[in-house]
Amino acid sequence: MKSKIKTVYVCQSCGTQSPRWMGKCPDCGAWNTMVEEQVEKSKDIGSAKRSGGMEPILLNEIQARDEDRFVTKIGELDRVLGGGIVPGSVVLIGGDPGIGKSTLVLQMLRQVSELRGKALYVTGEESPAQIKMRAQRLGVKAEHLYVLAETSLDEIIRAADGLEPQVLVVDSVQTVFTSELPSAPGSVGQVREVSGRLMIHAKKTGMPTFLIGHVTKDGAIAGPRVLEHIVDTVLYFEGDKGHSFRILRAVKNRFGSTNEIGVFEMKESGLAEVANPSEIFLAERPADATGSVVVSSLEGSRPILAELQALVAPSKLTMPRRTCIGVDYNRVSLLLAVLEKRVGMQLMGMDVFVNIVGGLKIDEPAVDLGIIAAVASSFRERPIAAQTVVMGEVGLAGEVRAISQAEARIKDAAKLGFKRCVLPALNVEKMDKASKNKMELLGVRSVDEAMERLF
Ligand code: TYD
Ligand code: MG
User: Fold this and answer.
1) Among candidate residues 282, 289, 291, 287, the one with its CA nearest the CA of residue 412
2) Which CATH code of 3.30.230.10, 3.10.580.10, 3.40.220.10, 3.40.190.80 fits the domain covering 280-454?
3) pLDDT tens per residue across span 265-279
4) pTM
5) Ligand 1 near 172 CB (within 6 A)
6) Which atom number of ligand 1 is nearest to the Cα of residue 171?
7) 108 lines ligand 1 (CB under 6 A)
8) Residue in 103, 110, 131 to alter for ligand 1 test, most ligand atoms within 8 A of Cβ
């Protein structure tokens, strides 16, 4: 029998080692930070250095190979990846179970196999028959798409080397294990070791590799969080179960900008791209309702318009409720305090609910003024004119601060037929003629001034 390689548990925050697993690090006192690692790794690195013939290269002589990017022609995916799949890159796609990760990669593999050649889909969760059923539902008839039901890392690498696919997908990384570690598949040690080795394999062969990972609600101990720093690109696929919209978000990308998002809609026949998300997020906007306002959020390179709703109602609780969906709770608390103190709105005995329609999440200060406007609109029971967009950052003194890329946001809103925009005065001053002609721009310097303009 092959002897197991020696392992040791290492605290991830202070580096203390222990031969056994412990819930709490005896040295720094952190909980759940002990992770199993192989001993004697440093010896490998030493020998690689001695044998490797790597010489320093002049930066000017290195070829940038951006033209090698492979475009999948799923526009929303390509954009999030930074313009296509980069050879040798490792991409992690994380998300809740059932959100549509397997569907997304299967649709991607269809494109790969049609446009480029062989593709390999390794599944550790579903049987090939289940994959086939999903493929039929999606109408995937790819000729060069191979499926492998396997969970042993060595077998997966052997199969990939034999087949030499254009793209390798491992669904999911939590099911794969290496026999070099005694711990179970899905444990932090295994997940890290497996992705580390797939990373080395991808760099060596140039084979782009996609890893699928589940995230549990609390951010997952054995989830993909531990490998975010190993891989090149981390994408999160999110959306709530009640809505059909899905958002693919880049949270780390060595080959493109982060904050870029792709929007999809889950349909009977799979994921469909949503080319103009603003239209969809505004589709069911009620006319003349109080507490409803349209805000603009910059997602990567493109602005998206969304409806923000607030409801302010008298509370029976001693601690009135503050509920926020899609916006940051602390941000809303801060803005409510600004409304109380600077505008004199009595929100003390009121429940306040704030929601972004369509399951969108916005964490950009440019929606501050929109939150203020929606809360004020509901509190005063005065609707905001339908064709008005509101944007601006709000400071604690009640001042309205300039936002980034106001021109792009105005252009986008004008395209959808918006006629008026309440925005920071500073942005209006700096704006070029063309944008000024697109719609009526109401520059404001303070929350008070915004209230006057809006109501
Ligand atoms: P799936 O890709 O299996 O999710 P994950 O891999 O992230 O766990 O997709 C799960 C859900 O998507 C499932 O509840 C059914 C739904 N779905 C559709 O609505 N239409 C489709 O064409 C497909 C394939 C799935
Ligand atoms: Mg799946």
Assistant:
1) 282
2) 3.30.230.10
3) 999 999 999 888 888
4) 0.79
5) no
6) 6
7) no
8) 103
